[in-house]
Structure formats: structure tokens, C-alpha cells
Amino acid sequence: MFPREIALKQLEEMKKGVKKMRLVAEEWPIPFQTLISIILSARTRDETTIEVCKKLFQKFSSAEKLSNAGLKEVEELIKPVNFFQNKAKNIIECAKKIVKDLNSRIPEDLTKLIELPGVGRKTGNVFLSAYGSDAIGVDTHVTYISNYLGWVNSQKPEMIERTLKEIFPKNKWSEVNPTLVRFGKTHTSPALKNKILNEIKKIE
Questions:
Q1: CA angle at residue 57 from 55 to 108, to 5 degrees?
Q2: Which residues are catalytic?
Q3: N or C: which end of the chain has fewer CB within 10 A?
Q4: CATH numbers and ranges of domains, the chain
């Protein structure tokens, strides 16, 4: 297993010099909006998703309102996100299930979260992490950087998640995804990103 002490130092080093930016799971007034935003952010830039969600929530601010929304109207509102047609169907169905089966409350348990339409492990973990639970959401940034630094040797999200949970202490789990995402979004040039990561790799 990768040495915990080194991984912690590398994680802290990655926090330096990153741009201040709002990530898609942050700053929403209610958990429902946070969850829908994360669902819509799959394969779409956070900046795009946040603007789309602001418009969506002006009209459908709660699970109750979205559960009664028309599919075509939702599709039109979220058109800038990738796979908007499939996502529109998912978020309406997700809202219906939250209202009907969960009394309009978002579960704080991964096994229950992933039963909701459009919610996979990554979405569920990013949501839980946003509300202070010990969780690690594995996206493209986490996959690339954790492999590059040698923390993991896998492209499988569940294996990466399991390995990272073994390396990092539980109180650091919720920092892993936001730190690596901000690092990846700050250093968008692959050459520059790899140059900085090569320096981070030297940390002992």
C-alpha cells in the first residue's frame, strides 16, 4: 500500500496554487438541489452545470416541484449539459421517488442513495462528502491523479475508492475529491499538470 504519510503530504501540496472556484456540489441551499446538480454534472463542466441549475431551480426549486415537471420543459432548461435528455428523465424520476418513497428527504446512506434514478456511487459519494460524511467520489480527476502519483493502480472506480480509503485516514476522505478536482481544473494543460505532479511525486 502507498505510504499514508507521503500521500497526506502530497494531498496538502496539491492545495497550493489552485484557483478558488465553486464546485458543483457546493453552495446550494437544500440537499435536493445539491443532489440534482451532481447528477447533471456527469461528463459536463461544473461551471456549465452550475449555471444550468440556477435556471432549473428558479422554476423547480424542490423535489415536489420537479416531480410534477414536464419532460420537454426540463430538457429545454438543462440542454447545455451533456446527455440532457436522459438526465432530464432521471432527475424527474429521482424527484418522484424522493417525494413518494422518502417523504421528500434525501437519504444519508450510500446504499439508499444509489437506488435513486441517475445516482451512481460517484454521485452518491460526492453528495455525502458535501454534507460532511466520510466519503470519496471517484471521477476522472481522481482516477487520473491518483494513478499518476502511484496511490492506486486501477481504472475501476470502486477499486480506486477502496484503495484510497485504505491510504487516507477517515477524516481526510471528504477532502480527496474536492482537492484533486480543483487541482485538475486549475492545471488544464496536460503538460503543465504532469510537470507539477512530477514535482509532487518527489515528496517523501
A1: 140
A2: 122
A3: C
A4: 4-19+136-201 (1.10.1670.10), 31-130 (1.10.340.30)
